[in-house]
Amino acid sequence: MAPPRILVVGAGFAGVECVRRLERRLAPGEAQITLVTPFSYQLYLPLLPQVASGVLTPQSVAVSLRRSRRHRTRIVPGGAIGVDTQAKVCVIRKITDEIVNEPYDYLVLAAGSVTRTFDIPGLLDNARGMKTLAEAAYVRDHVIAQLDLADASHDEAERASRLQFVVVGGGYAGTETAACLQRLTTNAVKHYPRLDPRLIKWHLIDIAPKLMPELGDKLGLAALEVLRKRNIEVSLGVSIAEAGPEEVTFTDGRVLPCRTLIWTAGVAASPLVATLGAETVRGRLAVTPQMKLPGADGVFSLGDAAAVPDLAKGDGAVCPPTAQHAMRQGRVLADNLIASVRHEPLKDYVHKDLGLVVDLGGKDAVSKPLGIELRGLPAQAVARGYHWSALRTNVAKTRVMTNWMLNAVAGDDFVRTGFQSRKPATLRDFEYTDVYLTPEQIKEHTAATVIKH
């Protein structure tokens, strides 16, 4: 009898932790493990703002999936674009655009999330995100290019528009992005003698009334003070009404000449979730405490794609889409998969938040480990210590620590690599949000597939 086929979709924190545990705890031949991901690395997403600012190199936060000595997982280079839970088939678009059907006995949906957008005129065509490694590299090149072009221009209006930068989203990603990139431009402008540093202006806006409310009032205000001391204009209760290639219109009526709009206003579950036709909670798959998808045999989901009940909080709460929950859910789900294969009982996922860390660059940070409020250097030590310890391999830890030390000693560099320099890239280009199939298309693709048990 053929061993059961375990198909894991997504190589984020949740998917990789699940696969690693399966490789360690399943005996050879006990199950076939397949991982679907467009890239053969796990991205350490919380450090992307430091990649965008040049503090870290891209490969520092891209941890290879093939370094494990226990590696026996088959990796399919592509993305899942539909699931037929009745036929037990996942439809995959490879990086060559070939569409294939992948049968499974157990399916783990760890497809993560994409940048959440709204129906704002011009947003999808003119905004850039901070959700992928390519986006971080692109944003860095784009910001430095604006300094280069402003320095070369004789047109004062063009200079003004190129030296205004807008970040939308007052959560962790947006706050860290604005803080890190502002430090980059502040340090870079010293090498542009024709540019007046006073012309460079960063704006951070959010429709919410508070900055990072999860931190609490004291630390939220502390972060706000740090940003304003750096001359970052923070506007709360404000969003974007229209995004153009050379100007941005705010909902309070202001029109800002601007050619850099970075959109980090939250995340939404992967569009793959919608292809299952299952019940959702705020767009995430509604699953049991064991992370099983009700009504779908052999299907599990976790991480950003799933609304996993937060038993530690109770009262119907679901776990927030954070890295620490995703990693721990991956381990518990792997144990539940092994229990399913061995016909043993499953266990619930229970975990309390360890705290929150926000790295604002340099010596600035705010952190709340285990409920203890910190700011400044102690908070920075906790923030970087947490991120460093969470990196999966010693190679990644060495690269990150070396980059941090080099940046502390030698300062920033301002090299523009020319990444997609001739092609304006949109949110769709980076996150492939328009490639998913409808339920009817999925049925067409899976109709001819014969699943052998």
Write structural notes for this entry:
This protein is an alpha/beta fold. The chain has helices at 13-25, 48-52, 123-126, 133-152, 156-162, 172-188, 217-229, 323-341, 377-390, 394-410, 427-431, 439-446; strands at 5-9, 32-37, 41-43, 62-64, 74-84, 89-94, 99-103, 106-109, 113-115, 127-128, 164-168, 201-206, 232-236, 240-243, 247-250, 255-257, 260-263, 267-269, 280-281, 284-286, 299-301, 306-307, 355-359, 365-369, 374-375. The strands form seven sheets. Strands 7-6-5-2-1-8-21 form a seven-stranded mixed sheet. A five-stranded parallel sheet has the order 10-17-11-12-13. A three-stranded antiparallel sheet has the order 14-15-16. The relative contact order is 0.17. This is NAD(P)/FAD-dependent oxidoreductase. InterPro entries: FAD/NAD-bd_sf (IPR036188), FAD/NAD-binding_dom (IPR023753), NDH-2 (IPR045024). Belongs to the NADH dehydrogenase family.
What is the gist of this entry?
This protein has 453 residues and is an alpha/beta fold. It has helices spanning 13-25, 48-52, 123-126, 133-152, 156-162, 172-188, 217-229, 323-341, 377-390, 394-410, 427-431, 439-446, and strands spanning 5-9, 32-37, 41-43, 62-64, 74-84, 89-94, 99-103, 106-109, 113-115, 127-128, 164-168, 201-206, 232-236, 240-243, 247-250, 255-257, 260-263, 267-269, 280-281, 284-286, 299-301, 306-307, 355-359, 365-369, 374-375. It starts with a strand and ends in a 7-residue tail after the last helix.
